[in-house]
UniProtKB/TrEMBL annotation:
This is Translation initiation factor eIF2B subunit delta. Transmembrane segments: none annotated. Acts as a component of the translation initiation factor 2B (eIF2B) complex, which catalyzes the exchange of GDP for GTP on eukaryotic initiation factor 2 (eIF2) gamma subunit. Its guanine nucleotide exchange factor activity is repressed when bound to eIF2 complex phosphorylated on the alpha subunit, thereby limiting the amount of methionyl-initiator methionine tRNA available to the ribosome and consequently global translation is repressed. It is found in: Cytoplasm, Cytosol. One of its GO terms (cellular component) is cytosol. Component of the translation initiation factor 2B (eIF2B) complex which is a heterodecamer of two sets of five different subunits: alpha, beta, gamma, delta and epsilon. Subunits alpha, beta and delta comprise a regulatory subcomplex and subunits epsilon and gamma comprise a catalytic subcomplex. Within the complex, the hexameric regulatory complex resides at the center, with the two heterodimeric catalytic subcomplexes bound on opposite sides. One of its GO terms (molecular function) is translation initiation factor activity.
């Protein structure tokens, strides 16, 4: 998972054949699999979505509309197909090598 918007940027990069490199320390690797951004995520203040340069927005009084709820996700999931290389403290590895790193780390513990 990464900050929200990362997946869209990686998708556009893939569309235009621009390589996507991710920097991540191996201590952040985990065995948990996430297929979407909704199961385990942090939510930010929905009012932060209303901040504009001019200070006005169409949704200024969104609290008054009972059938409207705003969801401000903090992170999103970037599919491994969108990532060309992961740069770690062990060196540069493909996404497919992350499970191998986890296995080796578990054997060492």
């Amino acid at each position: 998972m990464s900050r929200v918007g990362t997946s869209q940027i990686a998708l556009v990069a893939r569309t235009f054949n621009v390589p996507v490199l991710v920097c991540c320390e191996t201590y952040k690797f985990c065995e948990r699999v996430q297929t979407d951004s909704f199961v385990s995520n942090e939510l930010d203040d929905p009012d932060d979505l209303m901040v504009t340069r001019k200070g006005k927005t169409q949704l200024e009084n969104w609290h008054d509309v009972s059938s409207l709820g705003l969801l401000n996700l903090v992170y999103d999931v970037t599919p491994p197909d969108f990532v060309d290389l992961v740069i770690t403290d062990l060196g540069m590895i493909p996404c497919t090598s992350v499970p191998v790193v986890l296995r080796v780390k578990n054997l060492e513990q």
